[in-house]
């Protein structure tokens, strides 16, 4: 059984193995080709014009957040349904890569269950190009003893604090208040 630290280190190493150039055997540190499915993997990174895109991972309690960022052309953004599906496909490719690389590093499988919808943000750079940032949360399977980021106990404590604060306003009125009661 893998510990929490083993799972986090395995995911982090899998993400680190996707550095720019790892998709070419000559540039890989161990000679193993690793393709994530990013746009930058098309062509040679030294000879061809560069496409800027990449990903990173963040941990939120028992959840993993995969963030994708990259440049795209404005005309691709205007076809909204296709654009959103392309971005979601890209995030799914990253998830599959992480699972595959995690398996090769640790000899264990990684279970990632999608939580909610992806959050896609497009920012204007010029009349031709835009910057895309997207993130998707996944629940990490096999993490035992880790509380969710937003546990119900936190919500209950906040609700109690707000109720107590509101009740402070129900005391006697000061003597200088002369308005009529509504």
Structure description:
The chain is of the alpha+beta class. The protein has one domain (4-150). The chain has 4 helices and 4 strands, in the order H-E-E-H-H-E-E-H. The chain has helices spanning 4-16, 74-78, 80-106, 152-167; strands at 53-60, 63-73, 112-124, 129-140. A 4-stranded antiparallel beta sheet has the order 1-2-4-3. Strand 1 (53-60) and strand 2 (63-73) form a beta hairpin. Helix 1 crosses helix 3. The radius of gyration is 24 Å and the shape is flat. The model has no long low-confidence stretch (mean pLDDT 81).
Helices and strands, in N-to-C order? HEEHHEEH
Average pLDDT confidence is: 81
Percentage of β-strand residues: 15-25%
| Tally of separate helices | 4
> Please, how many domains?
1
Which stretches are low in confidence, meaning pLDDT under 50 for 5 or more residues running? none
What class would the helix/strand composition place it in? alpha+beta
Count of β-strands = 4
Main sheet specs: 4 strands, antiparallel
Which percent bin holds the helix content? 25-40%
Radius of gyration: 24 Å
In which order are the strands of the major sheet placed?
1-2-4-3
Ends: how far apart?
65 Å
Shape: flat
Give the tags.
182 residues, alpha+beta, four-stranded antiparallel sheet, 4 helices, 4 strands
Task: Give a nutshell description of this structure.
It is built from four helices and four strands, in the order αββααββα. The protein has 182 residues and is of the alpha+beta class.
Topology:
Elements (H helix, E strand, L loop, with lengths): L3 H13 L36 E8 L2 E11 H5 L1 H27 L5 E13 L4 E12 L11 H16 L15
Antiparallel strand pairs: 1-2, 2-4, 3-4
